[in-house]
Design brief:
CATH superfamily of the largest domain in chain A: MetI-like
Strand order of the largest sheet of chain B: 1-2
Distance between the termini of chain B: 15 Å
Strand content of chain A: 5-15%
Structural class of chain B: mainly alpha
Structural class of chain A: alpha+beta
Order of helices and strands of chain A: HHEEEEEEEEHHHHHHHHHHHHH
Number of helices of chain B: 14
CATH superfamily of the largest domain in chain B: MetI-like
Shape of chain B: globular
CATH topology of the largest domain in chain A: MetI-like fold
Oligomer: heterodimer
Distance between the termini of chain A: 51 Å
Number of strands of chain B: 2
Largest sheet of chain B: 2 strands, antiparallel
CATH architecture of the largest domain in chain B: Orthogonal Bundle
Largest interface: A-B, 100 and 102 residues
Number of helices of chain A: 15
Helix content of chain B: over 70%
CATH class of the largest domain in chain B: Mainly Alpha
Number of strands of chain A: 8
CATH architecture of the largest domain in chain A: Orthogonal Bundle
Largest sheet of chain A: 6 strands, antiparallel
Order of helices and strands of chain B: HHEEHHHHHHHHHHHH
Helix content of chain A: 55-70%
Radius of gyration of chain A: 31 Å
CATH topology of the largest domain in chain B: MetI-like fold
Number of domains of chain A: 2
CATH class of the largest domain in chain A: Mainly Alpha
Number of domains of chain B: 2
């Protein structure tokens, strides 16, 4: 009796699991569909990319060159047998079909009876083409500068500041920390316009400086995240290091930093993704083409070459690839970072 | 967080007493030295510009000519005469009111499903979380073609169900709903936060409830939901504030159109400021935005007692 009940519970669980997996499976298809479509479209030709209904695998109509011209291949019944013939000419409903291997062999058949033959073909050339249609290499280089410099700036400055807030006591420090917390919620628009005026007066308009320099002055959100993390490192370790003759910077270097790799990596990854995707600040500050970042370049590609859909999707794919790679490499950190910053925020 | 601060202070205080006043002064010196990057940045890039922005909102300014004082002119114009200010606010709030609750429900549902024991759980979580990591212009470009009425896959899916899809981004009626649908794609970001919340609910509560005869439905309503309300509320407020930053998708996909149907607040602020060089008016819009955000933040603070208690409970685990 007891065994039976146990089995029925197991069965119930199994059914529940299957139902959950079916729901999740449908959702997962919906989630992945846009990305699959992007990839597939990036490998099509201009004409096949806008076909309806869309084909998920890039297919080209099979063609053959006879003489100087290209002809479509049709699959068509000849004397009861299906054959692949080239449509040479159309006369009303009747088509003149020829054997591609022997153009002298001709048949006159109703075109309606045949079907065009498609073959799978990946147009990888869309990728190099997209890279050269617009100076994508330059944009990527600018984005890399933006990402690398600001990530270094953010990690270094936020670490130092967070260390100050986590390990030192001074008059007014807690008030300043509250002030820092308050700025997390501050919408950037409130400081945006005077900053723009100021940077313009500096002669920084149309340079990368307005994007790079502020990163070195710590950002409230990351300071908060790192400070929370530093607080979990036992103070006894500091004391031990102090006895060994370490000063404040020595403690930071020998005690705090070695313990904080996950938190630092989280900040670095979140920041670099943000910088790579950032559109607003480059849009405001960068005017000349040779200074644009990938996001601006892609937007420009989108508005000028919108008829080159495969090229556009190839460019989008290339823009997303670094993000996706980083995501898969550092998945744990992501989830952890979201948990630290999300819940304790 | 509160507990750690208290502990940290005591330890430091004892240390201070032991080592004397000069050391305390030295500690303070180090503290200010270490936080100086932020402090300088705060004065230079935050506090100063905030004041400047408030002052600018009382002027007419186009960067080239010196600012001209107009008193409350921008504000009065904004509230009473500007043809699109209230409209952009309405667009933003409409989006917020529909997209955020939808995202909350969907995110929570997903988190509940992904908190069950099923095979390959990590793979499922990865799939659902990924869209919230990829973002920016590439995603906006991608979605603008998914909504294409002629060959986009959304209308293809609808056609499979025998529905003739609308013009989406080119339709005044459907452009905003399209952006809302798109927002659901990246619901995984909220899901991860819920998931963390769900996993920190002590299992003993569920065990006790099961012994008392509570079914799955009751356990959800009586235990899960009350315990994660703080997180729901947090996501809600973050979502509302985020809506006021909404920019890339509106700029890239619709340009605010058609007929201003997707003219989000931030896009309108951008246009006024950087397209039409109305920096004074833009500053007024920015400050009004700050007031809105401030109200939201106050709501967070009102609820904060709830979630600080919640965390304290967790620390004992």
């Amino acid at each position: 009796m007891a065994k039976l009940t146990w089995q029925s519970i197991k069965l119930q669980r199994l059914v529940g699991q299957i139902v959950v997996m079916i729901i999740l499976g449908i959702g997962a298809i919906a989630v992945l569909m846009p990305l699959v479509w992007m990839l597939s479209t990036s490998l099509k030709t201009r004409s096949t990319s806008t076909e309806f209904p869309p084909k998920w695998i890039p297919l080209d109509a099979k063609k053959v060159v006879i003489g100087e011209r290209e002809y479509f291949i049709y699959s068509i019944p000849v004397e009861g047998k299906m054959r692949e013939l080239a449509l040479f000419q159309k006369r009303g409903p009747v088509g003149i079909f020829v054997n591609p291997d022997n153009p002298k062999e001709r048949y006159e058949i109703d075109v309606q009876k045949g079907k065009r033959v498609y073959e799978v073909k990946f147009h990888w050339e869309n990728y190099p083409e997209a890279l050269t249609t617009v100076p994508f290499g330059t944009y990527i280089w600018n984005s890399i500068i933006y990402v690398v410099v600001t990530t270094i700036g953010t990690v270094v400055s936020c670490t130092i500041v967070a260390y100050g807030f986590a390990r030192f006591r001074a008059k007014g420090l807690s008030v300043l920390f509250l002030l820092l917390l308050a700025t997390i919620m501050l919408p950037p628009q409130v400081t945006l316009i005077p900053q723009f005026v100021l940077f313009t007066k500096f002669g920084w308009y149309d340079t990368l400086y307005p994007l790079l320099v502020p990163a070195f002055f710590a950002n409230a959100w990351n300071v908060f995240l790192l400070r929370q993390f530093f607080m979990t490192i036992p103070l006894e370790l500091d004391d031990a290091a102090r006895i060994d003759g370490c000063g404040p910077l020595g403690i930071l270097w020998h005690v705090i930093l070695p313990q904080s790799f996950p938190a630092l990596a989280t900040v670095a990854i979140f920041h670099s993704l943000w910088a790579w995707n950032d559109f607003f600040y480059p849009l405001i500050y960068l005017q000349s083409k040779e200074k644009w970042t990938v996001s601006i370049g892609l937007q420009q590609f989108n508005s000028i070459y919108s008829r080159n859909l495969p090229g556009l999707m190839a460019a989008s794919t290339m823009t997303l690839i670094p993000t996706v790679v980083i995501f898969f490499v550092a998945q744990r950190l992501f989830i952890q970072g979201v948990v630290i910053s999300g819940i304790k925020g | 967080m509160v507990a750690t601060t208290a502990k940290g202070t005591t330890v430091a205080a004892t240390a201070k007493r032991r080592k004397g006043l000069t050391l305390a002064r030295r500690e303070a010196m180090w503290a200010y030295l270490l936080i100086s990057p932020w402090l300088i940045g705060f004065i230079w890039l935050t506090a100063g510009p905030m004041i400047a922005s408030a002052v600018l909102s009382l002027t007419e300014y186009d960067v080239i000519n010196p600012p001209r004082f107009v008193g409350l002119g921008n504000w009065i114009y904004m509230f009473t005469a500007d043809p699109l200010f209230w409209h952009s606010l309405r667009v933003t709030l409409t989006y917020a009111v529909v997209a955020i609750p939808l995202g909350l429900v969907l995110g929570l549902t997903l988190a509940l499903l992904l908190n069950t024991r099923i095979p390959a759980i990590a793979v499922w979580r990865t799939i659902y979380y990924m869209p919230s990591v990829v973002s920016g212009v590439a995603v906006a470009v991608l979605w603008s073609y998914i909504f294409n009425p002629r060959f986009g896959i959304l209308n293809w899916l609808l056609s499979l169900a025998g529905i003739r899809g609308p013009g989406w981004l080119s339709s005044t009626e459907w452009a905003l709903p399209a952006l809302i649908i798109m927002s659901l794609w990246s619901v995984g970001g909220g899901m991860i936060i819920y998931l963390a919340g769900l996993q920190s609910i002590p299992t003993t509560l569920y065990e006790a409830a099961t012994i008392d005869g509570a079914g799955a439905w009751q356990r959800f309503w009586k235990i899960t939901l009350p315990l994660i309300t703080p997180i729901i509320f947090y996501n809600l407020v973050i979502g509302i504030i985020g809506t006021f930053q909404y920019f890339v998708n509106a700029y890239v996909m619709t340009g605010g159109g058609p007929a201003n149907a997707t003219l989000f607040y931030n896009l309108y602020l951008y246009r006024n400021t950087f397209r039409w060089s109305r920096l004074g008016f833009g500053s007024a819009m920015a400050w009004f935005l700050l007031f809105v955000v401030l109200v939201m933040t106050l709501l967070v603070f009102k609820s904060s007692a709830m979630w600080v208690y919640y965390e304290g409970e967790l620390k004992k685990e």
